Amino acid sequence: MRKAIWIISVLAVAVAIGGYVIFSGERKPPIRYRTAQVERGLIVSTVTATGTINPVTTVQVGSQVSGMIESLHADFNSQVKKGQVVARIDPFPYRARRDQAAANLANAKAALIKAKVDLAQRKRELDRVQVLLKQQFVSQADVDTALTAHEGAIAQLAVAEAAVKQAQAQLEAAELDLTYTVIRSPVDGTVISRQVEVGQRLSANFSIPTLFLIAEDLTQMQVDTNVSESDIGGMTVGKDAIFTVDAYPGIEFHGHVRQVRNAPVSVQNVVTYDTIIDFDNPDERLLPGETAYVTISTGRADNAVLIPNSAISFTPDIAQGDLQRLYRKYDIPPAAYTSHHDNQQVVWEIVNGDLRPVAIRAGLSDSASTQLVAGDVHPGDQVITASMSGPAPQQQQGRAPIPRRR
Q: Rounded to whole angstroms, how far apart are CA atoms 263 and 88?
């Protein structure tokens, strides 16, 4: 009897231990969620990009004639005035051509005088034979010969006059080429680049060689930057811009968008648009070619309802079927959790211990928060930002319109 009681006790303990192991092994620990409060505040949406500082107007000073650089009268950083001589090309070949053209013009004028004299002689001869024909001292053939000679003299005079005009044009072209050997600045400004040396030979046969680059005004500068097609929608003329440069860390410079150029630039399937930002540079601290790190304000909202971006990125780690049932139960439109058309999104709340999805429409966004435009979410509500177990928010299905820095 005692042995039977002992066996029954052992079996009871074994059954209890086995049941505990089985049931405790099947029971999953409850999923806990991290939440954040919806608040009101200021939100400023920005676009970031990098660009290059350039003068607003840069003039290339070139040479329209070929030849050897005889002298230079400007260098890097030289301040020049409009019409000031900046370089000279050896004028000797062009002076010789000018003198030759002048001699050709003199010859053409002499030929013109001779043609006029010949025409006068042929006119007198024609008049004389016409009088003699009436008196029957000459034949009609003599008159025809004189008439032909007169008409030939008229034609020769026209040729001589054309030759004079041609020689005059050649002289003017030679004189113009001679003046081109003296190169002058077309504008007031600062020389930012000199690309030739004394003794260097220039060839202007196929293109005009560049001697200098002159910045017209270094106190008025611009930043040339490229904004991606995903951000260009909020970019309009007059938007405020802030940028920094490596030369002055921690110092912000201010400007505004002057132009968004319509010409797309595609590099490795990334489409961008050239955006021009004007700024004042009164002390000329910023130099051409410096890299600028630009932040452009594309929107601002005061007293906006702000939802953390992590809440928009969050999707609970539950079975897909259960997820779809919750979407249908709370009338969540498919666009809110698939295509995000019209910036529709989904955030999650815990109501009486259960998960509840809420459809919203997002507005402006910065690196931390997104503006609530529409949706049943109010300041003070707690929205889920992450689960204490399961994938990180960035690996889940939601999407937050967080600006990208290039």
A: 39
Three-state secondary structure call for residue 137: coil
Q: Which amino acid is at 321?
A: G
**What is the domain class of 58-90+182-215 according to CATH?**
mainly beta
Please state, in angstroms and rounded to a whole number, the distance separating the CA atoms of residues 372 and 273: 29
Closest C-alpha among 302, 297, 300, 301 to residue 235: 297
CA separation, residue 152 to residues 116, 143, 147, 223, 252 (Å): 12, 14, 9, 70, 83
- Domain 33-43+303-395 matching CATH 2.70.50.60: the answer reads no
- Judged by DSSP in three states, 345 sits in strand
**Strand ranges (E), 26-90:** 33-37, 39-55, 58-62, 67-72, 79-80, 85-89
pTM for the structure as a whole: 0.66
| Residue reference for tokens 């017209």 | 216
CA–CA separation, 186 and 262 (whole Å): 30
Give the type of residue at 90.
Answer: D
Domain 48-55+217-301 part of CATH 2.40.30.170: yes
Q: Per the structure block, which two tokens stand in for 44?
A: 């400023």
Question: In 10 A of CB 29, how many CB atoms?
Answer: 7
pLDDT tens digit string along 227-251?
A: 988 888 878 898 899 999 999 998 9
The whole-angstrom separation of Cα 29 and Cα 356 is: 20
> pLDDT tens-digit profile of 316-331?
888 888 888 888 888 8
